[in-house]
Amino acid sequence: MHQVVLLLIVSMSLFAVNAFAQSIDQVRVAPSADKTRIVFDLSAEPTYTYFTIFDNAPYRLVIDFHNTTNKVDLAAVDVRSDVVRVVRPSGPPRPGTSRVVIELSGAITPEIFALGPAGSAGHRLVVDIAGATNVTEAAPTRTAPTVPAPDSTPRVPRTLDSVPIRPLVVVIDAGHGGRDPGSIGPAGTQEKAVTLAVARKLAARINADPGMRAVLTRTGDQSVSLAQRTSIGRRERADFFVSLHADAFTSSQPRGASVWVLSQRRSDTELGRALENKERLSEELIDVEHILQDADDDPYLNRAMLDMFRDNSMADGYEAAQIILAELGKVTRLHRNRPEGASFGVLSALRTPSVLVELGFISNPHKERLLINNQHQDRLANALYMGIREFFIRNPVAGTSLAELRLQTHVVARGESLSVIAQRYGVSVDAIVQHNNLRSTTIRVGQRLEIPLGR
Ligand SMILES: [Zn+2]
Question: Number of folded domains in the chain?
Fold first, then answer.
């Protein structure tokens, strides 16, 4: 069972419940000498599904509470366990679902069960994680927290349980290359050149951020197979995979950028079908199952695993795509303002959150000119960078420096300017503007701003 992701679906109720029929009212974490028990106090019998991610750190148990609102500030839940590291919310896979992520110290199979009302307790979902916590030793350090001096020494990379803080790894895949030029615009621009130019700019932007590291699937005009592209993602233990394209469409009409995530359902739009067919014909495309059979010789297990990886990375990919689209929308016209689904080979063989970005359709003469414009490429790369970064601020990966960022809400008071607020929190004006999607530096009294501390 190495590198296995388990997906277990537990439906406690066969009947449809009203939207938001349940709520999470309290979360309690109780470590002991043999296990850590997490109890979710709920307003009604839980309807939930869960899965684990054990193929790479951080090891995670993900629980989706369906038709449920979460009333608990999970950041405030007291976790002092040696086997449970973090209990945090994550982007819901669909409206009405509350997703809770529990980060574990290892690949520990959880025991999960529901309890009905008993005594003063109501409906509960109980999660047991096996493993000892030295409770007596943990207590004193909590009672005397060390407060750093106002002007303490500069931040040094901290460690979590002696795991060094690492940068987030973003694999950037410049579509096509070498003997595969991709689509060709009316003026002769080759898609492979556009994707490489933007990929390089995005890599430079990411590498300038100490919290992130970029890996390119190609750095020049080389042919790279689909298998090579996805294996680079796996080898580098990518936290995110973004594939860049600027495809043609049969009519010159569509010209906006779009972001695609892997969809389990076949794509239902005309455009999706056209793009899928094109990728399918492309010589770089090979069957996903071949990749998996290379890796392991149990095709049935692999098949099941692949479906589970898809489920998991898709939900993350969708959220990432939404955020990236919002950023792209500031610098270029969008084809559609929500992510689109299609089953592209380059995405379906990956386990990491992954998106395919159409930077614009090269078949449109106006877009073709923009796509080779240096400034426009800069803007696209910057929007992609901001979107990816924002995704990881909202969905922190334990052990990475971006996860160390803390958000704080600030309500603008009379007489305050952005620079005053930025100075007060020790962050840059840019960081506040970017994080809050501000279109200008003008702010108004009473406005709520999220301050990304640590940037
Ligand atoms: Zn393409």
Answer: 3
